[in-house]
Amino acid sequence: MALHEVKRDSAETQSSTDMPERQPAAVEDHRAVSIDEARELDAGARHYRAYVGSAKAYDVTAASQFALMVTLGLREDHTLLDIGCGSLCGGRLFIPYLRTGNYYGLEPESWLIDDAVSFELGEELIRLKRPSFRHTADFSLTGFGVAFDFMLAQSVLTHTSQSQLDRCLSEARLALKPEGLFAASFFSNGRDVYDGSDWIYPAFAPYSVRFVVEKGRQHGLAAYPLIWKNGYEHYWVVFAHNEQTERFSWLANICGEQRMLRVLELSKDLNDTRRKYLKIKHELKKARQELATLRGDERNRSPERASERQSDDDAG
Prior knowledge:
eight-stranded mixed β-sheet, Rossmann fold, 2 domains, alpha/beta
């Protein structure tokens, strides 16, 4: 076992609520390439930075989630559960920040954490800070036997089926302290709601803000949508126990549900308009090229026609 002493769950069966590996196993291995080379890899490629998303956005993605959690009140003496912590993109900032033993990571792919320790954090920091890891795919957030002050799911629920989302929220309610907060990013495509039964990756599973808020309520969690970019144009939702709604009313005042719905609707309209503009621009460019070609052909033919007429005149 590695020096960071992870706990390895070995469930022999996989249920429909499990979070499977992000990418099929039969994929070319890029683990040995440099960070600069990894930036050119597609999302999902087998390198610890690319496997979890855009390698080019690895730094910004880490910074944005760290800034969000600190803004929400995360302090060094709090406990944090990083759901789908991957290659410790955010963990490499949270682990040094939190006091010893306060960081917990849940990630099915153990090699991601191994590589993150080797290339980002180092065994010495792991020995000093003693983070805890579990390698399981069943969203068993209660498996650590710890009640958490904060929980985080960065670009995880953007890939889940509804049953997996239900499982995560039901476990979050049990694992979250009465005064705790759970921040999760989601993907929106207007009012679309993903109705598939499988985890999808690297594609995103769309869930509207209204749908996510209602899901939270079904599981006894108040949901507060936030405008906070994570590098993938996702939106964030902060969940808290219903009993804490008055305490966290400031979240609703800053970014209320209706305001967020309107922003997303306008964003979708803007993106649709932009796509139409780019399509028209491309078609216009193509039409201009065709017109220029036709004019060139016409100019080339004009001297030939003049020469033919002159020949006809001379023959007459």
